């Protein structure tokens, strides 16, 4: 699949979803249910995964410190900025894509295979407004919150590992001296864009599924792969844009 097609299909789906939602309205109750489905059921995966990631980050920092500077605490502020701006939103979004992307793609592909989507259209419903819009809203709200919680979990685990495993002041890995407003803005843009893209990529894969159980499995795999690769590409695009603008 070309890059144009990779991003083009979700963009077209987003345009159709916005148009259908403006015409038919947004089912807010279903949107709240999807916030729970995406955020509530992913929070422990994201926080535990990011906690392990923070521990690994400090272990790598300790290895580098032994070779170059001799004191792992010196690397703390630089690693904290890297975690806030780059690694926190990117890794949290990937973890969310692995669970929520799979869940969305499996649910929508099952509905497509069982002709429930066609039944919805025959009963004057619109799959874009009724099925896709609540998931996109949940992603736009839930993924930034998950990225925030994941970054906090990684920071706390990094500080704890530095303090108790390597015997240095763990507060160095919570030192914000290099973090500014542009770092926070970049992290938010990455999280919000990934939050919108994950359900769109899953919906593209799920709504085109036809056949039986095999089609559901293929759509689920395609949804997770597309959502994960999309998050990495969004992370790269936002980082390059900020570099070009010297922000």
UniProtKB/TrEMBL annotation:
The chain crosses the membrane at residues 44-61, 136-166, 187-205, 225-245. One of its GO terms (cellular component) is ATP-binding cassette (ABC) transporter complex. Keywords: Membrane, Transmembrane, Transmembrane helix. Pfam families: MlaE (PF02405). InterPro entries: Permease_MalE. It comes from the Bacteria. GO terms for molecular function: phospholipid transporter activity. This is ABC-type transport system protein. It comes from Pseudomyxococcus hansupus.
């Amino acid at each position: 699949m070309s890059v144009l097609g990779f991003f083009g299909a979700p963009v077209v789906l987003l345009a159709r979803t916005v148009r259908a939602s403006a015409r038919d309205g947004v089912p807010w109750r279903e949107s709240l249910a999807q916030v729970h489905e995406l955020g509530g059921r992913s929070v422990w995966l994201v926080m535990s995964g990011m906690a392990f990631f923070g521990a690994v980050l400090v272990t790598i920092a300790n290895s580098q410190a032994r070779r170059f500077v001799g004191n792992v605490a010196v690397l703390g502020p630089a690693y904290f900025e890297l975690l806030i701006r780059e690694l926190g939103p990117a890794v949290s979004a990937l973890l969310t894509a692995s669970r929520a992307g799979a869940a969305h793609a499996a649910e929508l592909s099952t509905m497509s295979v069982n002709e429930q989507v066609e039944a919805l259209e025959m009963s004057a419903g619109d799959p874009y407004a009724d099925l896709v819009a609540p998931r996109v809203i949940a992603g736009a709200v839930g993924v930034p919150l998950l990225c925030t919680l994941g970054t906090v979990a990684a920071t706390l685990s990094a500080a704890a590992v530095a303090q108790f495993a390597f015997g240095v002041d763990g507060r160095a890995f919570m030192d914000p001296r290099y973090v500014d407003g542009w770092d926070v803005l970049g992290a938010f843009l990455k999280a919000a864009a990934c939050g919108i893209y994950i359900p769109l990529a899953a919906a593209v894969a799920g709504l085109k599924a036809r056949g039986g159980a095999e089609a559901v499995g293929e759509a689920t795999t395609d949804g997770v792969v597309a959502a994960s690769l999309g998050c990495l590409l969004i992370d790269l695009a936002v980082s390059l844009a900020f570099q070009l603008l010297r922000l």
